[in-house]
Design a protein that fits this description.
The protein is of the alpha/beta class. It is 41% helix and 14% strand. Helix 8 runs parallel beside helix 9.
């Protein structure tokens, strides 16, 4: 369903290579996660626990991003009791909050009197003023609303307590790390590095193709990738875009305007 789910799955797999792992997942995701764990042959190391919480509004998971975050916050709040129950039963050594990977969201795991890893979390980056026009009018309005939401959520006591109670907070970048108080233990650790990318970095023959993967939202910057392609001298270089979203038509129109329809 998206990058958050993949981040969580990779964290589970990584932990299960060395440890017994219990995963607390939303009921809608639990069966898919369990099926993938079985496919990977990790069922003897990973136990999937599901938790269903009625969202604040019916159909919240299918509504706008702010409402979905509201539903997610309700789930995390309810998860605190489930986390304590599971710890009484299994006596965990360590807890790890992998997703949602945002510095400004609630974390149920910090109710435990155990070492807790929070992250890597992101969401602290901002758009440089000079690039705001690239967002378009609708994109700029959405960006400012999103920024205000992050700021408001990040100042809630429940979120700030989570930072302080975590043994370590891993921040995806310096901008996010700066938004977490100095009295918290914060280290920068990106979750955006692929092993396949690292392995290919030393190869002598480089691919002429470029890839953008993600939701097509204004603040993701895909339009900038298209405009950059226009400045690449190698006419054989192509840009493959994997994703969908409200920015799609604007990206296609810009590619056509720049004469890049056959290369994007």
């Amino acid at each position: 369903m998206g990058s958050e789910e993949e981040v969580a799955m990779q964290a589970i797999i990584a932990a299960a290579t060395e440890h017994q792992v219990w995963v607390l997942a939303h009921r809608d995701s639990a069966e898919d996660v369990r099926a993938e764990i079985e496919r990977l042959g990790l069922s003897d190391r990973v136990t999937i626990e599901s938790l269903q919480v009625d969202p604040p509004l019916p159909g919240s998971r299918d509504r706008s991003l702010p409402v979905r975050h509201w539903a997610y916050d309700a789930w995390q709040k309810a998860a605190e009791a489930k986390v304590l129950e599971l710890d009484r039963e299994h006596d965990f050594d360590l807890a790890h909050h992998a997703t949602i990977a945002s510095y400004w969201t609630r974390c149920a795991l910090t109710v435990l009197d155990k070492p807790v890893v929070l992250g890597p979390v992101g969401g602290g980056v901002t758009c440089p003023p000079g690039l705001l026009p690239s967002l378009g009018l609708r994109g700029a309005v959405g960006y400012f609303f999103r920024t205000a939401t992050r700021h408001a959520f990040g100042h809630r006591p429940s979120v700030r307590e989570a930072w302080k109670n975590a043994t370590i907070v891993l921040a995806q970048n310096a901008e996010t790390a700066e938004r977490i108080p100095d009295d918290c233990n914060v280290e920068i650790y990106s979750n955006g590095i692929s092993s396949s990318v690292l392995l290919s970095a030393g190869e002598t023959e480089r691919s002429q193709d470029l890839i953008f993967a993600g939701r097509l939202l204004p603040w993701k910057g895909c339009l900038l990738a298209v405009e950059t392609l226009a400045k690449v001298s190698n006419a054989n270089t192509r840009l493959f875009i994997y994703g969908d979203g409200p920015e799609k038509q604007r990206i296609e129109a810009r590619a056509a305007e720049l004469g890049l329809s056959d290369r994007v």
